[in-house]
Design brief:
2 copies of one chain form a homodimer. By secondary structure, chain A is of the alpha+beta class. The first copy, chain A, contains 5 helices and 19 strands. The relative contact order of chain A is 0.23. Mean pLDDT of chain A is 87; it is low at 1-11 and 97-127. The A-B interface holds A 80, 82-83, 135, 149-153, 178-180, 188, 190, 203-208, 210-212, 223-224, 227-231, 278, 281, 283-289, 291-293, 295-296, 298 and B 80, 82-83, 135, 149-153, 178-180, 188, 190, 203-208, 210-212, 223-224, 227-231, 278, 281, 283-289, 291-293, 295-296, 298.
Chain lengths: 306, 306
């Protein structure tokens, strides 16, 4: 039996993670819902972010309101800290004035004017100025595919395509700070974030931020144009002058005209094979690691032609 | 006693990792030897690399010979793969022709000419065309400060300022692929590297490469100009055309006129405090992680005025 198994193994060359993703059947993918697909458009490129309302519903509602109010349009990338994050901010206000046809026009100026409604402060404000922490959620209701390797920080795995870590004692789960994770900036108090400053991880996964800040999703396309931005030279990588910033042309949710994306279903057989192949790389690799950390897996994403 | 300890703790606010590094005494630092300090100069910035001859002496001898022969001058950054590596290559040849005074002049052309000596092939070739793997070394002789957290890949820690992983059974240790680690490109056979193609990690630590490729050091200054380079759009992040590449103006070892660098002594009390502070962050952090992965530590480096 051992000989036969060896022969079979030799006859079936191990597939690379990329091969496995390329060969995965349609059933191994889940569509990214357009209402959770956010495009951040800049002169330097466009980033597609999938939001995760299963993990941070209040923050995502706040971000949605800001996006619909046009508050990110005319905002800017204010911070790029090497091996850490790229961060962008909404305009200080006012909201765009929506015309009857639904088309949006930016009210003049970058501070509140009589014609505008400052999000969080004016009448009809679509979200509170600060939001309570959404650092974790009940693990119940999530189907978690275990990582299969020891995680330095907490037992971890994948739920609905997201890298998650868990705490058995509290029965909670949370999104992990891996490359591309998108979170909501806050000041020192835990609840000061209002969704108007967002960041994406562009370095080694800063997992020490897990459960210390609210994650709302991850970049699924286009991060390379943002991770390659010049680093800010001020403290924490903030740009020292507005001239160094990259403006946000438009931030909007997907429409029928946009490319569609699919994320690998992390409960699928294809993902199990992908995870195994990431854990024990072949080909170039002489000594497979026999383990992988959560952030070295990167759940596959594909763009599909409508 | 417990109360007193609590009072003392309250009276001494926890220092951040940065505070600890800033306050570390002179005795907590070791100088980077000029003969191990390599500058990679480009129009986009200069990177300072500390080489680790304790870990890869043959590869470093080969790199040294290539540098002294001027083979990297006129080379180029040929690959930038997002969340992975930036890679640069020596000119195909010939070597610079050294004048009697030791000053170097680049022989015309980028392929071997009668006046030049192609490294590894011509008479007097300073190193063999290929080098045997230097993926690990005996742990004996290294003083290893343990990480103090569970490492997904292998028991790990710090030796002489380097992040290292270990295998008790084989009694070996090796440099780990953390952000900034510098390695020697190779083809599929394990011994095809000759030191003429080097890479630096610019993404989440690809620890699966540990013991699969020879690491020779790490970037201790200036990586941000290189991690921010445009990503290559060819397979594996290679640039498709030479016009996209960034040239290497000069690659050279340090002289007395250069800035000097020091790396924190990882056997010092200051480093123990730094590691503890990285493991349990305070200030902004509401819930300290109680653990850290190897690559989230980043041994402090400082520039000293001669």
């Amino acid at each position: 039996m051992i000989l036969l198994a060896a022969l079979l193994a030799a006859a079936t060359p191990a597939l690379s993670p990329g091969d496995i993703a390329a060969a995965a059947p349609a059933s191994a993918w889940r569509a990214v819902a357009p209402e959770n697909l956010l495009f951040v458009e800049t002169p330097r490129g466009t980033m597609a972010i999938e939001l995760a309302p299963d993990f941070a519903p209040a923050h995502i509602a706040a971000i949605r309101a800001l996006v619909m109010a046009g508050r990110f349009d005319g905002g800017a990338i204010t911070r790029v800290q090497d091996n850490y994050v790229v961060q962008w901010a909404a305009r200080p206000g006012p909201d765009k004035v929506l015309t009857s046809g639904g088309a949006a026009a930016v009210a003049a100026g970058s501070t509140a004017t009589p014609g505008g409604v400052a999000v969080g402060t004016g009448p009809g404000a679509p979200h509170p100025a600060t939001l309570p922490a959404e650092y974790e959620r009940p693990a119940k209701g999530l189907t978690i595919t275990p990582l299969g390797s020891v995680d330095t920080y907490a037992p971890s795995g994948f739920a609905k395509g997201w890298p998650v870590a868990t705490d058995k004692r509290s029965g909670t789960a949370w999104l992990a700070h891996c490359y591309g994770a998108v979170g909501v900036g806050r000041d020192n108090p835990p609840d000061t974030g209002d969704g108007s400053e967002l960041y994406a991880v562009i370095g080694h996964g800063p997992r020490h931020l897990d459960r210390n800040i609210t994650l709302v999703g991850r970049v699924i396309d286009g991060i390379a144009d943002f991770s390659a931005l010049p680093r800010g030279t001020g403290p924490l990588g903030f740009y020292k002058t507005p001239g160094e910033q990259t403006g946000l042309t438009r931030v909007r949710f997907a429409t029928a005209a946009d490319p569609r994306f699919e994320v690998m279903d992390t409960t699928s057989k294809a993902f199990a094979a992908y995870l195994a192949a990431r854990t024990n790389r072949t080909g170039f690799f002489i000594r497979p690691a026999g383990a992988t950390d959560l952030c070295n897996v990167q759940v596959p994403v594909r763009r599909v032609t409508p």
